[in-house]
Amino acid sequence: MLSVKKLTKVYEGKVSHRALENISFEVSEGEFIGIMGPSGSGKTTLLNMIATIDRPTAGEILIDGKNPFKLKKNDLATFRRRELGFVFQDFNLLETLTVEENIVLPLTLERVSVKIMKEKVKTVAKKLGIESILNKRTYEISGGQAQRTAIARAIIHSPKLLLADEPTGNLDSKASKDVMQTLSNINQEFATTQLMVTHDPQAASYCQRVIFIKDGALYNEIHRGDNQKTYYQRILDVLSLLGGESGDLSTIRDL
Amino acid sequence: MTFRQFAIYNVIRNKRTYAAYFLSSAFSVLVFFVYALFIFHPGVNEGVTKQIAVEGMKVAEYIIYVFSFLFILYSVSAFLKTRHREFGILMMHGMSRRQLNSLVFLENMLIGFSAVVVGIGFGIVFAKVFLMLGAHIMHFVDLPFYLSWKPLILTLVAFFVLFLVISMMTPLFIRSSKLIDLLKGTTKPRKEPKASVIVSLLTAVALVMAYYLSVTTTTNNIGQRLLMVVPLTIVTTYFLFSQLSIFVIRLLKRKQNFYLRSTNMITLSDLAYKMKDNARMFFLVSIVSTVAFCAIGSFAAMKSMDKQFAKEFPFAINYVSEPGDQAFHQHLQTIEQDLKAKHLSYKKLSLTTKVQDSGKTKIPVTLISVKDYNRFAQVLGFSPLKVRDNEAYVVPTSIDGAKELKKHPISSTTLEPSGKALKIAGVTNLVLYKYFDSSSLVVSGTVFNQLQSHVNKNNPYPTTPVTFVGYKVKDWKATDGIGAALSKNIRAQFKKNPETSLPYKYTSAGEEYKLSEQMYSIMFFIALLIGAVFFIAAGSFLYFRLYADLERDQHHYRAITKIGLTNKELNRTVTIQLSLLFFVPILVAVIHSAFAFVALQSLFAVSIFSATLWVLLFFVAIQIIYFFLIRFLYLKHLKEGIVS
Ligand SMILES: Nc1ncnc2c1ncn2[C@@H]1O[C@H](COP(=O)(O)OP(=O)(O)OP(=O)(O)O)[C@@H](O)[C@H]1O
Ligand SMILES: [Mg+2]
């Protein structure tokens, strides 16, 4: 489904910075992958590259065997609209729209009929428990609700590949669990391939596999196997080896 | 939600951002429509002054149209710049470039079309008021309410095309196609532009030079000076803001005692952040306001001309009789009857001139006997002259002419064909009659009696000896309509054949004054509306600058209030920032205009100081009101964001 080959990203500037160094990995159809690593290790950079937001300096990304960077501009837009879902680290909801309108945005761009839109919104909102706030504007909802709205927007068009950058970063542990459960359900129900960056080992333990990155290079990788309990413990172990504090890694972004 | 709905929501729910731009556009449409109302009014085709008014308004239409184009173009590009992050999100969700372009196009057309509709709608509803008001200001008595399709169609088509063209140009403004750059959008901190010492110094020198040039402007070089000073001022103003502002803020930041005290740091660091945008906006607002001030100020000044008038027309009624004027006595009778009918008392004086040629230039010279001159001087309140036989005094035809003659005196002249040599002893303060063919010389009685008139027949418009009759009337403004029959004859003759003229000239100061007052009133009316369009546009720039950053500012102040900024301190910080935004460019505009008025003064014999001062004060007052209004709204909106 997704294959990342020898990916390198260099940020040019006064001092060029190698954010990613020769990273390669494969993700098969329907997998739910977590990406972890200390702050500044290149997780967002990697996700941006896969989401076609930014171009790699070297290396290749293939999604279903196609290199999205080789697509024409219009085809790239269509590709994003149909096959990609993206949850930004800071939601990126549009302030001019209501929650519902934000969610149906990908369908609007696809010019789907209003009837189908309504149906889909209903299902997705129910799944995420945000039916009651559909008519509110984005400044009237809480951080957790905004996060769930962003997730709803990312999945409403049933993308093949869902990319999420710290989708639980702003949530308390209860809300975080709900969101992770939803993502996990979507993964199982629709066989959506998912890639999620997270600092939260609890959240990561919902993933089938966790990839660890350090200083822009692959550091380690662990599979869930059957035992969720030991899986969680193993994640914590790798994290402590990586040198990050596991508990308070979730960053305080919004003062 | 369909695609079209999406575009509509984007506009309607952003109405706060677009408010000033929308109103300003609608106002331009309105003014354009009002001019069109006058231009197409059937009542304005009669009479010379009305036709001049129409010509003036046509020019005004072009000015407004071109200005609106630039204003809307700039505003649209500025709006789009603030929306990069939003566009990035949309493209991330699969919006194609085509869709993005059509979204922006739809939004712009929506705003543009509503502005046109509102502008014209307002114009139609108040057409009667505008016609009345305009007619009143321009001293037209008879402009009944009249509304045809023509002004409507013209305005509609003109502005529809304008918005269409600009909307089609919008894709050019969203240049960055890299998604990552778009997503970072406006949150990316802009670099402070660097201040170069050399450029700063050059700017200072250029500004001083521009001001010096305008202070030393004279009647003769004003055109040429204008061509130099205007571009120089525009360029220096730009650098003044882009260089000097940085320089000052750097300086203040370096003063740690000042920078780290109380709220100064918050205020200054924020100012520095917005520097580049502010510099450009300051520049635009200054220039646009200067244009508004100057346009309105100069015509307001011209309206206050009656003092100059009184000096230029010492006699309210002037009659010049040339050889062949058979109706001389009859005409004087008509005039005197008219004066009596209006119960105007008068003092009547008359003299007869002689003509010779100047030896050097071969130009005819009118000669007046000193006896006649002194009779006139006594009545008009000037000191009498003593003229020796080899001397002459020059009587200029106008105040400006007198100034020129005093600056560049002529020392002597020889008359032809008599060969009489005369030393020019001076220039009189008395101006006899504006429409004499040439300046006159006062010569001694003996010389005057000796000389014979000589009319050069080779001259296509020969200057002949004339008899001048002047009526001094105290209430000279009331002399409009006196001798109307004579004026009418002269005008009829001019219409019939402009090449030949009747053997007499007639002018009443009252009529002249009324005509010129009306001319200036027309210009004033036109300049007033154009100035208003400019000034409101400047206000819209300010508003936009503020609201474009409102969201970011809310985040900013939310963060700071959490650290512990009191309400009072917040108000103070915002007030300081807003006052800088509102008053720095206006201050510059006022100073620029003041110097422009000094230059303009060279065109006037009387002081235009008080008239222009009033205009400037008026604008500053409006700006202060606008400042308090926006401060109130802005603080309210800002605090809404902080509480939630
Ligand atoms: N636009 C950029 N220009 C230059 N350097 C950058 C840029 N974006 C990121 N970097 C650098 O690249 C490295 C990786 O950044 P990235 O955002 O991928 O980290 P991250 O793993 O997502 O961190 P976090 O967990 O804090 O979100 C960092 O050292 C960062 O400083
Ligand atoms: Mg990150």
UniProtKB/TrEMBL annotation, chain A:
Domain ABC transporter intervals: 2-240
Gene3D superfamilies, A to Z: P-loop containing nucleotide triphosphate hydrolases
GO cellular component terms attached to this protein's record: membrane protein complex
CDD domains, per the entry: ABC_MJ0796_LolCDE_FtsE
One Pfam family cited in the UniProt record for this chain: ABC_tran
Matches recorded under SMART domains: AAA
Name of the protein this chain belongs to: ABC transporter ATP-binding protein YxdL
Source organism (scientific name): Pullulanibacillus pueri
Automatic annotation (TrEMBL), chain B:
GO cellular component: plasma membrane
UniProt record, GO biological process: transmembrane transport
Residue ranges occupied by any ABC3 transporter permease C-terminal domain in the UniProt entry: 63-174
Record's bilayer topology term: Multi-pass membrane protein
PANTHER family: ABC TRANSPORTER PERMEASE-RELATED-RELATED, ABC TRANSPORTER, PERMEASE PROTEIN
Keywords for the protein's UniProt record, in alphabetical order: Cell membrane, Membrane, Transmembrane, Transmembrane helix, Transport
Pfam families: FtsX
Ranges that cross the membrane: 20-42, 62-82, 103-131, 151-174, 195-214, 226-252, 281-302, 522-544, 578-598, 604-629
Record family assignment: Belongs to the ABC-4 integral membrane protein family.
Organism this protein belongs to: Pullulanibacillus pueri
Localization in the cell: Cell membrane
Lyase is among the record's keywords: no
Name of the protein in question: ABC transporter permease
